[in-house]
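QA checklist item 7 of 12: single-chain prediction sanity check.
[x] sequence parsed
[x] length recorded as 426
[x] structure emitted
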Amino acid sequence: MFIVLGINHNTAPVEVRERVAFEPKSLVPALLDAQENLGNEGVAILSTCNRTELYLETNESPKRALEWMAKWHGLDASMLDDVNYVVTDDDAASHLMKVASGLDSLILGEPQILGQLKSAYAVALDAGTLSSGLHRTFQQVFSTAKRIRTETAIGKNPVSVAYAAVSLARQIFSELETKTALLIGAGETIRLASQHLIQQGVKKLIIANRTLNNAQSLASELNDLAETEAILLSDIPEYLHRADIVISSTASQLPILGKGAVESALKQRKHALMFMVDIAVPRDIEHEVDDLDDVYLFTVDDLSEVIEENRRSREEAAAEAEAIIEQCREQWVRDSRAAHKVDLIKLYRARSSDTRDQELQRALSALESGESADKVLKRFASNLTNKLIHHPTTELNKAISEGDSEIINLAQRLLDLGENPDEPED
């Protein structure tokens, strides 16, 4: 069974989402632990600022997976009871296609999620936790997302959480051309934010990162488009007063910016307005910063107005995308049935072959020891027949005794029996 177990921006606030987020360095240990403790054939994990989802091929119940997630994060499982969602099989495949296409994102059609899903797939592949079924599903999902991007206008305009943050900055400041932006982090979200800021006229960017090389690398990419500086996270207090706009998106498990540092920067700025967007989960900026008079602090949950405007503009493209997903969902069902059929037939043939080989080896050994061929062949035929029909006969007898017409009818079809399998034919 293919299962998706998740918690996202529609089901839980950021306070909950940040507690179930997986750090990048913990993903491989988590994958291996989930596979071992849940008896999964395959497992992959997606963890972003807006969602955490487990993708499982397993016969275990989703409840066990939820309990595992809670235990991994040191939480009481009951805390997640009302904020999780579970979808299975073709519904799960359809859900994953929507996620990959940006149809289930905070901002409809945002492209980042596809890259994040591909990363989740790659990590699971490297960890050895991908089953053949999950591998096949991911490939179909990626193909579907590509088709939607090609055949619809869902990705016509550059839309992402970063884009929404910059759009909001444009509403706060009438002119961005004179503003300086501090970008905390150097990942894809910050890269997108920097591009959108430059497109909106921002000329000065300060890029802060835990690793200076990463900050310098991004700064050098943008150097021809804006005046850029690269600093360490520890240098932020020295530069913060220069920032009119602060956009933060790191994988830190602890806040990067505290209320005290922002208060100090405001004094240096003579309380000139500061606009801050904290895209990270867990949050990079202490929520107490929002109490300061001269700061506008927004989290990903506060971008709803920009997001809703974008959602309305993309509804027609989304409807087209849904139609494509429905086609691809049906194809997934057909492919899954075909794969299951092949696997089942392979297993049945392999077991029958093993039984045959075991009996054949016994017969050959008997011939080598001097037994007559006639005697050996009769015993070989009898033993092979008995072993091949033992389990089907046992189950058929049970079905007949219990009056299980479904099993009886199925046995008649599979074994080419007469109308009454409990009575010999004339």
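[x] summary fact logged: Residues 339-415 form one domain.
[ ] second reviewer sign-off
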